[in-house]
Amino acid sequence: MARYLGKETTRVDGIAKVTGKAKYTAEFQVPHVAYGFIVLSTVTKGRITAIDTRQAEQAAGVVRVFTHLNAGRLGKAAAAGGPPQWSWPLQSDRVFFNGQPIALVVAETYEQARHAARLVKVSYQAESHSTDLEAVLGRAEPSPQNTPARGDPAGALQAAAVKVESEYRIPIEHHNPMEPHAAIAFWEGNQLTIFDKTQNVYGVQEHLAEGLGVPAENIRVVSPFVGGAFGSSLKPNYYPSLTAMAARELKRPVKVVFTRAQMFTGHGYRPQTIQNVTLGADRSGKLQAIVHEAFHNTSSFEPFSDNTTGFLKQVYACPNLHAPLKIAATDLSTPTWMRAPGAVSGMFALESAMDELAYALKIDPLQLRLINYAEVDPESGKPFSSKALRECYRLGAEKFGWKNRNPEPRSMRDGKLLVGWGMASSVWGAMQMPASARVTYRADGTASVTSATSDIGPGTYTVMTMIAAEFLGLRLDQVKFELGDTRQPQAPAQGGSWTTSSVGSAVRGAALTITAKLLDLANREASSPLRGVAAADVEMLDGRLRAKGDPSRSIDIAELMRSTGTGEITEVYNSTPSPERAKYASLAHGAQFVEVKVDPDLGTIRVSRVVEITACGKILNPLASHSQEIGGVVWGIGMALEEATDVDHRTGRIMNASLQHYHVPVNADIHSIETIFVEEDDTIVNPLGVKGMGELGMVGIPAAIANAVYHATGKRIRDLPITPEKLL
To answer: Is 652 left (phi over 0), alpha (psi -120 to 50) or beta?
Structure first.
C-alpha cells in the first residue's frame, strides 16, 4: 500500500516560493556585480557599417560597451568562404534577424546600463529580407524526421467515397513565462560559475565549454528555480555566453536580464505553420487515406523542426498515410520547442479535419473516432504498452452529456447566445531518457537526494521527494531533494514530459539499491530475522527493514547501521529505458469535450465548460497532475482564441513584443474546467508506470474549441486564433 505515491501532496517548495526564499536566477547576490543591457538590431538583414559607442562610453557608470569590434571570441571562427552563420553573439557585422543582439553595455547599475544602451548609434547596410512563410514556401526543405508514406495514399484518396480537404494556419506564438531570462556569471581563475534560467544545466555547460574554449568541468551551471519556461530554455540561449564572455573580459561578475520585449527575439517561439489535410473515407466512416502536409518556418542560419506531423501517424487506424513536414528559412530568429511542440499544431489540423469529415458523413464526431480507433500502433504495427483512450472517450462523453448534443450547427442556444459542443483527441509520447540520481541514507533516518534536473513548475521537487520517501520508508520531511546544478548527477533536459519517468526511475533505483545493501549488512549476522529473504521481498518503513509478506520479520535500521559502523549509505543510480520497451509503442492519450457560448452580435467567444480526460499511466501526485492538466487547458484556450505574434513583414519587426499586446488568457477568460484521469497499469513503460502529461493536457484543446465554435455558429475557422472579426 503506497504511503505517498498516488496521494494528493502539496508542494514541498511551496513555502519557499511564496515567502521569497526560493531564489530565481536574477536574485542571486554576487558581490561587485556589474549590469549588462543588450542593444538589439533595428534592421532584419544586412551589415553593420558603423557602430558609434563614444557617447555611451562617456555616460555615468559605464564600464565597457561590447560590440563585434571588441568582444571576446565565442565559438570557432567562421569558415572562410562558408555561408554566413549566426550561432554566437557579437562575432561579426552580419545581421540575421530584427532584434539580434549587436552590443552589450555594462555599467555599475542596471539603470545606467539601460540609459547608455540608448546612446549607442548604429548605421546599417540593409538587404532585402523575407519574414513571411507564405513567400518562401517554394524553398521549403523536407524535415529530417519525415518517414516514408504508408500504403498508397494517392490511390486510396482517388478511390475514397467521401473526401474533405482543407488548409489550416497557426501564427507564430511566444512562451511568455513569468520569469524573464537572466544570467549571472563570475570567474575564479579559469573556473566559471553561472546562474542561468535553464531547463538543462548540463546542456548549458556543454554549450559554454564550446563557446568559451574551456573544459566542461571548469564550468558550474546553477538553476535551482525556474519561473516557467515551457521550452524557451531547452536549447541554450545566446545570453549565457554573452554574460560569461563579458565577465571574463572585465574580470568581474556580470548580470544580464532580458526585458519583456527582448524575450520575443531572445529564446525562440512556436513556428508559424500552414497545413493541408485531405481525408478520404468510405461511407461507413472508415478512413481510407490521410494526406497531411505541413510547412513551418525556421531561421536562415539554423534548420529547426518541431516534427509537426510526427505523432499524428500513430493516432488513427488508416492503411494509407502520408504526413510530410517541410521547413522554410525566413529572416527571423530560430524557433524552438514550445509546450506540446508539433503535436498541438498538427492535432489542431487533423482533429479539425476529422470534425469536417464527421459533418460530411453525418456521423457523430465521437463515433467517427471510435470507428477509426487504433488497437495497435498504425505506424509500427506494435502493440501499445497500454492505451485507455476508449475509456477516456466513454467517461468524457458521459461526464459532459455528449448524447444530448444536437449535431445541427446553430441549433443550441442559451438565451441569445449560440451554444457549441466540440470534441477532440490528444496524443503525446510516453518517453524515458537515461538519468542518474544520488541518494544518501543516514543512520539518523534522514536522506538527501540529488539529480541535475529542473523544476520549471510541474512539481519536480515534490514528486522526487515523494518517490524517495516511498522507497526509503521515510516521512516527506525526512527527505531533502536538490536539483539544478552541474555538480549533481546528470539528468536529461526538463522537456518532452519525461522527467518523472526518467529521473524518478533513477531515484527509485537508488533507494532500492540502498535497501538491498542494508539487507546484505543484516544478513552478515547468522541470527538475522531476514536471512534467506530476497532483496525484492524486503522494504524499508519507519526506520525498519522488514519482509513484505511478513512484517514481523524486521530489524531496526539505525541499530543495524550503528552495530556495523555505517554512518551513511550513498548510492548513485543510472536509470535507462528497458529493452522490453522496444517491443511496444508507448503513448499517452486523452479526450477533450468543450462547450462554447458565442455572442452572435459581437462575435465574442466564451469557453464555458471543458471536460478533459487523460490516460497517462499512474498518477503519482494527483494535486500537481490536475494542476498540470488545467494549465494545459488554459493554454489551449489562449492558443485557440487569443495568442498570435504579429510580424510586420515590411520591416521584419515583431509588433506586439509586450504582455499588453500579446494576449494570453486572464482569469475572466477561464470558466469551468474538469480534469479526470483514467489510470493505466503499465509495467513496460518504466518501473513507476508513469507517462508524460505536462504537454498532453493542451494537445486537443484548440481543435476541440474550433469544432465547438463551428457547431455554435456554422462558421469553420481554420486560421488561429479565432477572434471576433473572423466570426462576424
So the answer is: left
Q: Which of 93, 128, 163 is the last residue before a domain boundary?
A: 128
**What distance in Å separates the CA atoms of residue 223 and residue 225, rounded to the nearest whole number?**
6
Are 345 and 452 contained in the same domain?
no
Tell me, yes or no, whether 616 and 498 share the same domain.
Answer: no
Residue type, 392: C
Burial label for 715, CB within 10 Å (0-12, 13-18, 19+), is: middle
- The Cα–Cα gap between 89 and 266 comes to 11
Is residue 678 within 8 Å of residue 392, measured between CB atoms? yes
**In this structure, what CATH number is given to the domain that contains residue 484?**
3.30.365.10
Give the DSSP H or E segment for 95: strand 94-95
Domain identity same for 307 and 357: yes
For 287-304, how does the pLDDT look when each residue is reduced to its tens digit (9 = 90+)?
999 999 999 999 999 999
Residue 359 is given by DSSP the state H
Q: Which domain holds residue 56?
A: 32-128
Strand pairing report for 287-299 and 417-429: unpaired
Asked whether residue 596 falls in the same domain as residue 541, the answer is: no
SS3 assignment for 295-307:
EEEEECCCCCCCC
Residues 289 and 423 in one domain: yes
Residues 6+ apart with CB under 8 A from 1: none
Asked whether residue 287 is domain-assigned, the answer is yes
Q: Mapping DSSP to helix (H, G, I), strand (E, B) and coil, where does residue 444 land?
A: coil
| Single-letter residue type at 599 | D
Residue 598's pLDDT band, with cuts at 50, 70 and 90, is very high
Residue indicated by cell numbers 477533450: 592
CA angle 218, 222, 240 (to 5 degrees): 75
Half-sphere CA count of 116, side-chain side, radius 13 A: 30
Half-sphere exposure of 23 (CA within 13 A, CB side): 15
Q: Identify whether residues 310 and 427 lie together within a single domain.
A: yes
Distance CA 30, CA 184 (A): 8
Q: What is the pTM of this model?
A: 0.97
Q: Give me the residues paired with residue 101 across strands.
A: 40
Q: How many whole angstroms separate alpha carbon 717 and alpha carbon 525?
A: 74
- Would 213 be classed as within a structural domain? no
Residue in this structure with the C-alpha cell 493554454, named with its chain if needed: 635
Active-site choice (188, 571, 695, 725): 695
627 and 691 fall within a common domain = yes
Domain membership of residue 178 (yes or no) is: no
| Strand locations in 504-604 (E) | 538-541, 544-547, 554-556, 568-575, 587-598
Q: Is 312 left (phi over 0), alpha (psi -120 to 50) or beta?
A: alpha
CB contact set of 552 (below 8 Å; sequence gap of 6+)? none
Supply the DSSP string of 298-337, one letter for each residue: EESS------TTTGGGGTB--SEEE--EEEEEESS-----
Looking at residue 585, what DSSP letter applies? Answer: B
pLDDT grade for 453, boundaries at 50, 70 and 90: very high
Domain final residue, candidates 128, 143, 161: 128
Per-residue model confidence as pLDDT tens digits over 68-102: 999 999 998 777 777 777 889 999 999 999 999 99
Count the Cβ atoms, other than its own, within 10 Å of residue 535: 14
Burial category of 380 from C-beta neighbours within 10 Å (exposed 0-12, middle 13-18, buried 19 and up):
exposed
Both 293 and 427 in one domain: the answer is yes
* pLDDT 10s digits, 514-558: 999 999 999 998 899 999 999 999 999 999 999 999 999 999 999
Work out how many domains the chain is built from and give that number: 3
Q: Tell me the CATH number at 51.
A: 3.90.1170.50
Does residue 449 form part of some domain?
yes
Output the CA–CA distances (angstroms, integers) from residue 545 to 78, 477, 518, 557, 686, in the order listed.
61, 20, 8, 6, 25
For this structure, is 695 an active site residue?
A: yes
